[in-house]
Write a structure and sequence with these properties.
By secondary structure, the chain is mostly helical. About 70% of the residues lie in helices and about 0% in strands. It has one domain.
Length: about 190
């Protein structure tokens, strides 16, 4: 005969000890999604790594830091439990589509890229999607991280603690974006 000190209702707590230990902190999800958008989806970085050009590589890395910081600030604002995964999915999908469109059209990553229409930068031409290279690139840059994102368990934090994490993340990401912008501007001169 065992002694039961507490009545069991059959329901387990949402924040049981094992679940909180195994679930990933929302800050790490934001950092991973932002770094993916800034570095893995950075066509300028791919091209500079292929050329081995060190002055161009610094500019491409600065662009990656700027994009990662901007995405991190956006995701930190929307880093709440119900909005984090949809917002991160949007960031990853837009970054992957932009990289595929830039790569598929062979557009140079320079100031002239900003003069293009936004629609042509985000969506690759349908003819380029028929090439297996662009389709494979879209699968690697969008589908794989989206599957990871929707399968990862994110730790639920209490409201005040989540607000503190979001504010800290926004400030940190804004500092990264400012540093990347400064390096990019300085490199361009």
């Amino acid at each position: 005969m065992s002694l039961k000190l507490f009545r069991s209702t059959g329901y387990s707590s949402i924040l049981s000890a094992g679940e909180t230990r195994l679930a990933m902190h929302p800050g790490w999800v934001i950092a991973a999604s932002s770094a993916w958008a800034g570095f893995a989806c950075n066509v300028a970085l791919w091209r500079q790594l292929g050329l081995g050009d060190s002055p161009g590589l610094l500019g491409a890395l600065a662009l990656g830091v700027l994009i990662s910081g901007a995405c991190g600030a956006f995701l930190s604002v929307l880093g709440w439990r119900k909005t984090l995964k949809p917002a991160a999915s949007l960031i990853v999908l837009l970054a992957a589509l932009t990289a595929c469109a830039t790569w598929g059209q062979g557009l140079p990553v320079d100031a002239g890229l900003l003069q293009k229409r936004l629609f042509s930068l985000v969506l690759p031409p349908w003819a380029s999607l028929l090439r297996w290279q662009v389709s494979a690139l879209l699968v690697v840059l969008a589908l794989v991280p989206l599957i990871w994102l929707w399968n990862v368990q994110v730790r639920r934090l209490p409201g005040p603690q989540q607000l503190g994490v979001n504010m800290t993340g926004t400030l940190t990401a804004a500092l990264f974006a400012a540093a990347g912008g400064f390096l990019l501007f300085r490199h361009a001169l």
